[in-house]
Design a protein that fits this description.
Blueprint (H helix, E strand, L loop, with lengths): L6 H6 L3 E6 L8 H11 L4 E7 L1 E2 L12 E2 L3 E2 L9 E4 L2 E4 L11 H5 L7 E4 L4 H15 L4 E7 L17 H10 L6 E6 L9 H13 L3 E6 L2 H13 L6 H7 L4 E5 L7 E5 L5 E5 L1 H7 L13 H12 L10 E2 L8
Parallel strand pairs: 1-2, 1-9, 2-8, 9-10
Antiparallel strand pairs: 3-5, 4-15, 6-7, 7-8, 10-14, 11-14, 12-13
Helix pairs in contact: 2-7, 4-5, 7-8
């Protein structure tokens, strides 16, 4: 088996890098620690960002009579106070909005030193891929790293509990496999998203490692913890802060407020504070089977259809976004 360069070696040979959160929501916060690491390794210019999927609630917050279940995939070309760098990539700032909402990336841009982008998903994987490749060419990007959390990207169809929020992350993974520069998949918050049992995630990560897909690891520094928690104040997220808190010793069983008002169980370990870096192609070959089917999609509707009919999962982007769990009083 050929020896692949580690993420540290790739970074030492890179001058310009892009780090993008995979699954929407607050995943942009996960890019901060990776970007800090890249700077330590000598990377000079870094873009951070995410993709255009947010769990927004028109009434704000999330509670039993107004609970947010599904994300909104929004059109980045319709954002205000944003600069379009490519047909499906917007550069954002703290005043950037979509409708009445402030995307996570815009909120986080107020507390990070790097330019922040949002990759659009409304033109499918092809639209995201082509726009990212345009930026890669124009800005001489030497390294692209995606930043993810938990287990939802490791779906192989054999889980005891099917994943709930996988489509958007798989679309991002599908696009990055087609980029014109070295690419690395990173994830932290081992099982923090409560979307897979830890034994099953261990087995899937082990499968990737056995195939030569392990490219290194990075543990959060105290600066990373401080920066991540500061960003989590700028954009509150129910899951992302668990990574930084794990580095502070907040471990054990947690109730994660996702999927329903009753939440789900997650087991937080010291590993939850560590980023693992993987070869995305080996990850797809060994585990994330649905990624290849999404490569040529040109709209969300096409991606959703393939995800449901060919992959066999109901897309999170098609569920009712906000649900009232309180029934009306009987007559």
């Amino acid at each position: 088996m050929a020896v692949k360069p580690s993420v540290a070696e790739l970074a030492r040979n890179a001058k310009n890098a892009m780090v993008v959160g995979s699954g929407g929501g607050g995943d942009v916060i996960l890019t901060i620690s990776v970007a800090n690491y890249l700077e330590l390794l000598g990377v000079e210019n870094i873009y951070v960002g995410g993709v255009s999927s947010q769990w927004w609630n028109p009434e704000g917050g999330s509670r039993i009579d107004n609970f947010v279940i599904g994300p909104k995939v929004y059109d980045v070309t319709k954002m205000e106070n944003a600069e379009m760098l490519a047909p499906m990539v917007a550069k954002v700032n703290p005043k950037s909005t979509y409708d009445i909402y402030t995307p996570a990336e815009a909120a986080v841009s107020a507390v990070v030193p790097w330019p922040v982008i949002i990759g659009g998903l409304t033109d499918g994987v092809v639209g995201l891929r082509d726009s990212l490749n345009q930026l890669i060419a124009e800005h001489n990007i030497d390294l692209f790293i995606s930043a993810d959390i938990g287990a939802h990207s490791f779906h192989d169809g054999k889980e005891t509990t099917p994943p709930f929020t996988t489509l958007v992350a798989l679309m991002t993974l599908s696009a990055m496999l087609q980029l014109d520069c070295p690419v690395v998949y990173s994830f932290s918050g081992y099982t923090c998203d409560a979307e897979m049992e830890i034994e099953e995630l261990d087995e899937r990560v082990g499968r990737i490692m056995k195939a030569g897909g392990y490219l290194g690891a990075y543990g959060l520094s105290q600066k990373d913890v401080e920066d991540s928690l500061k960003a989590s104040e700028a954009f509150p997220d129910p899951i992302i802060p668990l990574v930084a808190k794990a580095a502070q010793g907040d471990l054990g069983l947690k109730k994660v407020p996702v999927i329903s008002p009753w939440g789900r169980r997650a087991y937080i370990t010291p590993l939850s504070s560590i980023y693992l870096f993987l070869d995305p192609q080996i990850m797809v070959n060994e585990v994330s089977k649905g990624v290849e089917l999404l490569k040529e999609t040109r709209s969300m509707a096409e991606a959703e259809k393939i995800y449901q009919e060919d992959i066999g999962l109901f897309p999170e982007t098609r569920v009712q976004r906000v649900v009232n769990y309180v029934r009306e009083e009987d007559d």
